[in-house]
């Protein structure tokens, strides 16, 4: 299993001149910051499926409940070209052990959410997922996928970074075989992180683990993965993070004096109102967790991310 976190990326974002007009769409955050901590697997689906450079622009068109990939001016239908190629290569992507994918916004092939989908009736285009990204999500529904613009929003970036590190740890866990004891340990260390995304999902995961036995290990692992990564898709907002910080503070109730308590509360409020980054109250609570020897808190990835994760979360 690869030591590094592997992230697929639309090749044009990595600076490769693969767009229809030989241009790129270089994103400096990706190549100057994220690239220090992850390994990129660049991919241009349009080139890889056999379209050359330069080439005609494409658009997605909804025809009779299916989405077709159509040449912008010629009207040529390239749906089968892309579909046949993707059906061939997507199973191979599993070997790359990707932990996430960063795609170009609005591209008819790579976009997420904001790619235009035209109608044959002349109605204004809808917005949706690009053609390749749709196939990618069908093949790997748990894979964190984000567009490069979302990475410039601090909360969405933090969300993506957290998810790729969780997926990496999940891959490491499952590479060792399926052991309920190890799954419970994995869950315990992620409890606060999951709560910050989805309290309901957190409770369902706990309930699921309560039903585990040696006879249903595979089902439990499969259901756990689906529930976990669907929970993490929900945004960890400032309010939800603050609730988790206050919950963590409850562990020190009997240890810290009124002055320290007020300092923590002020910091949580400052974070909740957007005045300081999450890492400030997290660092303070982590300090208290060590000072007062709270093993449950010390092992929480929410308070104590890995060094690479911490550095990425720290980047502006
Ligand atoms: S958006 Fe996707 S298909 Fe378009 S040039 Fe970039 S990598 Fe290629």
From TrEMBL:
Query: What is the organism of origin for this protein?
Result: Pseudodesulfovibrio sediminis
Do you know which InterPro entries this protein is assigned to? 2-thiour_desulf, DUF1722, UCP037004
Q: Tell me the domain of life.
A: Bacteria
**Residue ranges of every copy of the DUF1722 domain listed in the record:** 191-307
Q: Please identify the protein, giving its name as recorded.
A: DUF1722 domain-containing protein
